[in-house]
Amino acid sequence: MSFDPQHIRNFCIIAHVDHGKSTLADRLLEKTGTVEARQMRDQILDDLELERQRGITIKARAVAMHYEHEGELYELNLIDTPGHVDFQYEVSRSLACCEGAILVVDAVQGVEAQTVANAFLAMDNELAIIPVINKIDLRAARVDEVLQEMQHSLGIDPKEVLLVSAKTGQGVDQLLQAVVTRLPPPAGDPQGPLQAMVFDSHYDEYRGAVVYVRLMSGRIEVGQKVRFLKAGVTHEVAELGKFRPRMTAFPALETGEVGYLIANIKSLDQVHIGDTVTSVQQPAPALPGYRRPKRMVYCGLYPADGQEFNELREALEKLSINDPSFEFVPETSDALGPGFRCGFLGLLHMEIIQQRLEREADLDLVQTAPNVIYEIVTRSGEVIEVHRPQEVPDAGQIAEFRQPMVRVSMIVPSEAIGSVMKLCQDRRGEPQSTEYLSPTRAMLIYHMPLAEVIYDLHDKLKSVTRGYGTMDYEFIGYAPADLVRVDILVNGKRVDALSFICHRSDAERRGRAVVKKLKNELDRHLFEIAVQAAIGSRVIARETVPALRKNVTAKCYGGDITRKRKLWAKQREGKKRLKSIGNVDISQRAFMAVLESGSES
Amino acid sequence: MSAMESPPQAELHAPAGPRVLPQVRGWLPEPAWRADISSVYVHIPFCRHRCGYCSFTVAAGRDDLVPPFLEAIARELALWPLGPPLKTLYWGGGTPSHISLQAADQLAAELFHRFPADGLVEWTVEANPSDVTDEWCRQMAQRGVTRISLGVQSFDEGKLRFLERDHTGRTAREAARAVHRAGLVLSVDLIFAVPGESLSLWKHDLQEACSLEPHHLSTYALTWEPGTRFYAALKKGRVTAVAEDQEAQMYEWAIEYLQDRGWQQYEVSNFALSGYRCRHNELYWTGGNYLGFGPGAASHRRGYRWMNHRSLWNYLRRLRSGQSPIAEWEVLSPESMARERLVFGLRRCDGVDRRWFAVQTGFELEPFLAPVYDLWLAWGLLEDDGQSVRLTRRGLMVSDAILPELL
Predict the structure, then answer these.
(1) Inter-chain CB proximity A554 and B268 less than 8 Å
(2) pLDDT digits over B53-112, tens only?
(3) If residue A50 lies in a helix (H) or strand (E), which one and from where to where?
(4) Which of A110-114, B24-28, B192-196, B370-374 has the lowest mean pLDDT?
(5) CB distance A549–B297 less than 8 Å?
(6) CA A79, A54, A421: angle at the middle one, nearest 5?
(7) Is B307 at the interface with chain A, CB within 8 A?
(8) Mean pLDDT of chain A, nearest integer
(9) How does pLDDT run across A549-583, given as a tens digit for each residue?
(10) pTM for this structure?
(11) Is the pLDDT confidence value at A392 over 60?
């Protein structure tokens, strides 16, 4: 069954984590009879176990629902969007496939940082917005205040706001009517050349890449030869269809429709979100807005047991089939042995990948402290990208050291404003604006180095606001800063895995913290050990591990011989697994203690 | 190491075979139970109370278990073929001086029934100062005891209290004099590096100990054994161990002080006047053969090592029901045995004699030493006079950190 564009509505739901997006989506599927109530698994759109666990939608999904309004049948395509800033680009592509958005705000929690970020993103994409306050059935619901917050932070007319309880179903019918009446039908020329936007994909072991598309103009049919403009590849369409919510084949898709395309594509590497699919016969220009996904955060992943390197590689390869947005290259650390340098869209993305690795591949991982990508302009004018501290050239060769900056928006209880401002100031934030959403809540906006954000800002924000503060950030560009690479030396030998980049004025404090920590983790040796932090050849912090003076078992009688021999044999085995740097044996545990915590400075 | 369990219904008093008692068959590999061992340890697991640092097998305040214990020891002894005359005998604990004279007599009778006492050159009994009177010493001497190892630990009241000992400095001094009066060899045990202990307190303890003119002195740094109350308190941060440097200072001071006064250090913790080393303990350190009886007692014969169940209750129950008292045994290859002799031999101040080593083990010493020899010499950890190698003072002080490399 095909619908003319007038009877199609493409929309998404945007919300802060936990504000009930998935429950609302479930209710829409149920009310429209797309899924029968008894088949309903809770939150059907979040089909990855991990997503369920975290309550976060990682990948976009698209479902076609049928809904009768005033005697006419409409197709409502719900395009699910990831709710987190790490997937901002993916969100923006999903939004570009919609004409409207349901903006969900929790009746108790109120407007949160991600609500604002996503709402503005939707507005920027010129979507019609249906504002909704959800969870009105809760006793603690404070509908009037939340209305006020929505008005203040987003300029939403309280009269337009629908009151809904996704849980009980209250207000959901009105919401469906509003989707039909308030959202515009898709524009686009059905007779024009084929122009379809790729907004997501997943990998099917039997059929290859399943590409999610929205037809902006023209039509596409099975057997047609199509070209992916950015990927620069041509394929023959093997199957087309819609998600209802299971994949259901159709011979063709028309302008304004949302569905999937299978074309014998062997790898998701060739499927770029934001790419344009067009006809080989009658090509159209690429749609605007395409970008390569930008990895913002890097970290090293090492098997805790050095033996598992190959298992880790296989697991990473398997994961990347379904998520080409993270990348990994092998690297070897003196300290941790062979492992991988991995790039992620952001912190959450990193965490998700790590958890999936540990769960799905049953691997025990050591993750090094995350770092951002720096840019260095050398004296010769060359711009290099630095993914890890070891790649920073000598100070003499650096003309400019740049770091990624982000715009951080935080929504916090009014009484916490002072401590949040202090927190941001400590992390080199520059205040941009402070705005009261209501007498009790305020939105603060700062520009801040991304490195400071990924360091610990989120945890610290939660702690100074007793859990009530939320934050979101977006990349705004690179800016020069007074940065240095700090090396950690053990008996004069650099320990590669422990080098870090930081602001010059923090170098001494952080260097001292790491040196102190490492000192405490090192066992005494037969000789004295110097543990130093240095910028280039200048030592900025030093600790000494004195030589071992006494380590001898006092009693060694009949029964102790066996016990002692076994203990010593075990010690000896253990020592073989230690990394020796400058003759100093450093345990994996020591590295982990220093690496995982960063430092408490 | 494999744990051996016998069928529960094994006969205890089956007729003896030509060479060995059949009861032992299956509990240990055959080469382990030849009747050629002339050194015996008996573990007497009774104490008035358990001190917080003690990890030995002890049933504190359970004197009612002495009779079943004696019965069990008798059964355990009966498992073994008649042995050769004993050369050394060591009664340790627990507190051997805690049991009554009648109990001691009964134990000795059972023991000497299996192992004739005529050739005995050293019989040590560990004693708690509170138990030691002139009469007790006289009785011991009469029975053939040659040596009393007195658990003095300290003369300082505060330190003794911390260690949860039930005697005073005065009691310890009196006990030492009683041992002397009975003409027995006196060995004094001291503990150092007790939380809060200063170097001067330790010096004072050593001086006091020397003034009692013992023939033999053992000075043990306090060890924090897992499973003890002290260990738990340390882990919970309720007490703080003496810092390594301070402990080292105490240890070094003791070595110098005692050497200056004519005691020769012959092992990590042991000092003796000439001719008064503990022969039984030297067996442990040189890879000799010995049998241990009682709960937790360890035995060794030519590379076969085994150990009894540590719990007194298990030990009693098993022997009562005809089960093996042996909890575990292992057999070392000739090479492992040689390495063991080297490692434990280096804890002795005489070191390891090349010829002795070759005769005892069938291996040359050099290949075992080669990987560390140059480095240890260069770092002053080892010295070599061409005949023997020995650890230097510095080597001995850090021996736990270096000896594993020889295993």
Answers:
(1) yes
(2) 998 888 998 999 999 999 999 999 988 888 889 999 999 989 999 999 999 999 999 999
(3) helix A49-54
(4) B24-28
(5) no
(6) 95
(7) yes
(8) 87
(9) 999 989 888 888 888 988 888 888 777 767 778 78
(10) 0.68
(11) yes
The owner of tokens 């003119």 is: B213
CB A198 within 8 A of CB A273: yes
**pLDDT tens readout for residues B248-290:** 999 999 999 999 999 999 999 999 999 999 999 999 999 999 9
Whole-angstrom Cα distance, residue B273 to residue B259? 10
Residue B35 DSSP symbol = S
Give dist(CA A450, CA A478) in Å, integer: 10
How, if at all, do strands A441-449 and A398-413 pair?
A: antiparallel
Q: Is B23 helix (H, G, I), strand (E, B) or coil?
A: helix
Q: What tens digit of pLDDT does each residue of B325-372 get?
A: 999 999 999 999 999 999 999 999 999 999 999 999 999 999 999 999
Task: Determine the distance in angstroms separating the CA of B15 from the nearest CA of chain A, rounded to an integer.
Answer: 31
The sign of the CA dihedral B387, B389, B394, B397 is negative
User: Could you read off the pLDDT of A282-293 as tens digits, one per residue?
Assistant: 999 999 888 777
Residue A577: closest CA among A333, A313, A335: A335
Q: How far apart are CA A554 and CA A557, in angstroms?
A: 10
Per residue, what are the HEC states of B325-352?
Answer: CEEEEEECCHHHHHHHHHHHHCCECCCE
Q: Do B305 and A556 touch (CB under 8 A)?
A: no
Burial track A135-164 (b if 16+ CB lie within 10 A, e otherwise): bbbeeebbeebbbbbbbbbbebeeeebbbb
Q: Residues A276, A289: contact at Cβ < 8 Å?
A: no
From chain A, pick out residues whose CB is under 8 angstroms from the CB of B247: 550
Structure token pair of residue A138: 């809760």
Strands A258-262, A239-243: parallel, antiparallel or unpaired by DSSP?
A: antiparallel
What are the phi and psi torsion angles at A582 (to 5°)?
55, 40
Contacts of A187 (CB under 8 A, 6+ apart): A5, A99
What domains are defined for chain B? Answer: 18-331 (3.80.30.20), 334-406 (1.10.10.920)
Cα separation of B93 and B56, whole Å? 7
CA atoms within 13 A on the CB side of B332: 22
Q: How many inter-chain contacts (A to B, CB under 8 Å) are there? A: 94
Chain centroid to CA B357: how far?
Answer: 23
| Three-class secondary structure assignment of B105-149 | HHHHHHHHHHCCCCCCCEEEEEECHHHCCHHHHHHHHHHCCCEEE
Q: Where are the beta strands (DSSP E) in B158-310?
A: 185-192, 216-221, 264-267, 270-272, 291-293, 298-301, 304-308
Domains and CATH numbers, chain A: 5-182 (3.40.50.300), 195-279 (2.40.30.10), 297-369 (3.30.70.870), 374-480 (3.30.70.240), 487-597 (3.30.70.2570)
Q: Which of B221, B251, B284 sits opposite A558 (nearest CB)?
A: B284
Query: What token pair was written down for A531?
Result: 């543990």
d(CA B315, CA B324): 9
- Judged by CB atoms closer than 8 Å, whether chains meet at A548 and B298 is answered as no
- The angle at the Cα of A298, spanning A297 to A301, to the nearest 5 degrees, equals 140
Which token pair is A456?
């610990």
To the nearest whole Å, the CA of B18 is away from the closest chain A CA by 30
Q: What is the DSSP string of A251-291?
A: SEE-TT-EEEEE-----GGG--TT-EEEESSS--PPPTT--
Number of H helices, E strands in chain A: 14, 34
**A595 and A506 in contact (C-beta within 8 Å)?**
no
**Would you tell me how many other CB atoms lie within 10 Å of the CB of residue A91?**
24
